[in-house]
Design brief:
The protein is an alpha/beta fold and 450 residues long. The chain has 14 helices and 20 strands. Strands 7, 8, 9, 10, 11, 14, 15, 16 and 18 form a nine-stranded mixed beta sheet that branches. A six-stranded mixed beta sheet has the order 1-6-5-2-4-3, with helices on both faces. Helix 7 runs antiparallel to helix 10 and helix 12 crosses helix 14. The longest helix has 22 residues. The radius of gyration is 24 Å and the shape is elongated.
């Protein structure tokens, strides 16, 4: 996205009613041309002059004021420079969807396709749109990258680069150091891989500012462990580090906007592999929190790596802890793949995030921490089982498991996200996707303004 310094083609975006009114005020040639192309309800059209040169472009849509209005238009218009006619808010929204509609994951392929450019009135609008585009694209890139090039050390590299760019600090606890420093479940899940498990700990901002801690599940590939997934279930498990990708993208948004907070990001990064030293069903592990956990299923590993990270997140007594994870298929059954569910122990936090999601067209849906289901996590030999005895309410029981590792006085939200688009929508191609990070960012921005 760039500010305009030349004369781009004017681009008008209308609702059907606004288009009808505008059309009546146009020269007869323009009226005849557009009536011929029949875009009064939906569609776009280029308007030439008598020499055949394009002088205007028109786009008609019922969602003219949507954040996603121009998400597909960028792929439909011919190469060139365009400038949307409208107020700053409309232009900002159009710039956002234009940029994300033009997103391509092309790390492994060559493309010579030239996409049209959207020119905006000033650098401020361009910078604002680009901050959101960049954070979302980073999240998508991390998820889309195959596991062979996205293991714990690669997540480490990404956070290291962010530390250099924004002046943050990154520490790593790697391999057997996790046992020495009492992160047993992170080590247990990741020990069977040739890629050493890591806990990545990133901090940024004024140490005296209110602290917000983000925790992201970083299972870089999930074979299921000894409870091996079938081939179809394993095919997209490169996206199982989607929670880590979400908190990294959210962190970039926070830092790019210079929110006056003390930010901490914890990423337990592992590969759930199969080897002679893989953890087994029936094993019992005592977590960092001191809670013993019986392993019912090695494919419920996300909550195991998260519980040690959440336990550490309590240490600084932050104002809130927000975690993201690709945790359960049950959440996808409940809400589908495009609406992320979340849980919270604080009503004001939940309501604030929900409202911000509606305003940002990044919807999220609060789910209940139904305490009566906690008994389903009982174990005969340990304090907890990592899986419930019933398959029903699986997203709830997973959240209840995690809640035991968060201090009661700390406000907490847990997001269970798909991290993947199964179908193409305007501005949202098939592949890795960021769900809920704009909602959470908008909420934080409303609470912690400069």
């Amino acid at each position: 996205m760039a500010s305009a310094h030349s004369a781009p083609i004017p681009l008008h975006i209308f609702t059907p009613n606004a288009f009808e009114s505008w059309l009546k005020s146009q020269p007869q040639f323009t009226q005849t041309w557009l009536n011929h192309h029949q875009i009064d309800k939906q569609g776009h059209c280029l308007i030439p002059n008598s020499e055949g040169n394009i002088t205007q472009a028109v786009f008609v849509t019922e969602q003219a004021d949507s954040f996603w209005a121009c998400g597909e238009l960028v792929n439909q218009l011919p190469s060139g420079q365009y400038a949307i006619q409208g107020n700053p808010e409309q232009i900002e929204k159009a710039a956002f969807s234009w940029g994300l509609g033009g997103y391509r994951f092309e790390r492994y392929k060559q493309s010579n396709k030239s996409l049209p450019q959207l020119m905006v009135p000033n650098d401020e609008i361009a910078a604002k749109a680009n901050r959101f585009i960049r954070a979302t694209s980073l999240t998508r890139d991390l998820i889309n990258t195959p596991a062979g090039d996205m293991m714990p050390q690669h997540l480490n590299d990404t956070l290291s680069q962010m530390a250099d760019e924004f002046g943050g600090q990154l520490t790593q606890i790697v391999g057997d150091e996790l046992l020495e420093q009492n992160y047993p479940t992170i080590h247990m899940v990741g020990r069977a891989s040739v890629h050493a498990p890591q806990l990545l700990d990133f901090t940024w901002g004024d140490i005296n500012a209110p602290q917000i801690t983000l925790v992201g599940k970083g299972v870089c590939f999930d074979s299921g462990g000894l409870d091996l997934k079938p081939g179809a279930g394993m095919r997209l498990m490169k996206k199982d580090m989607g929670g880590a990708a979400h908190v990294i993208g959210l962190a970039q948004l926070i830092m790019a906007h210079q929110l006056p907070i003390r930010l901490r990001v914890l990423v337990p990064a592992v590969e759930n592999a199969v080897s002679a030293n893989a953890f087994r069903p029936g094993d019992v592990i005592t977590t960092r929190h001191g809670i013993s956990v019986e392993i019912d299923n090695t494919d419920a590993e996300g909550r195991l790596v998260l519980c040690d990270a959440l336990s550490e997140a309590n240490h600084d007594k932050p104002e809130m802890i927000i975690d993201f994870a690709t945790l359960t298929g049950a959440m996808r059954v409940a809400l589908g793949t495009e609406l992320p569910g979340f849980f919270s122990n604080n009503d004001a936090l939940a309501q604030g995030i929900t409202q911000s999601g509606l305003e940002m067209e990044d919807p999220v849906w609060r789910m209940p921490l139904h305490q009566a289901y906690k008994d389903l996590l009982n174990s005969d030999v340990a304090d907890l089982s990592n899986c419930a005895t019933s398959p029903f309410g699986g997203a709830i029981t997973a959240a209840l498991y995690l809640q035991d590792f968060v201090d009661k006085e700390i406000h907490w939200a847990h997001f269970d996200v798909m991290a993947w688009n199964n179908r193409k929508l305007p501005g949202r191609p098939v592949g890795g996707e960021a769900f809920g990070i704009r909602a959470v960012f908008a909420y934080l921005q409303s609470q912690y303004k400069k």
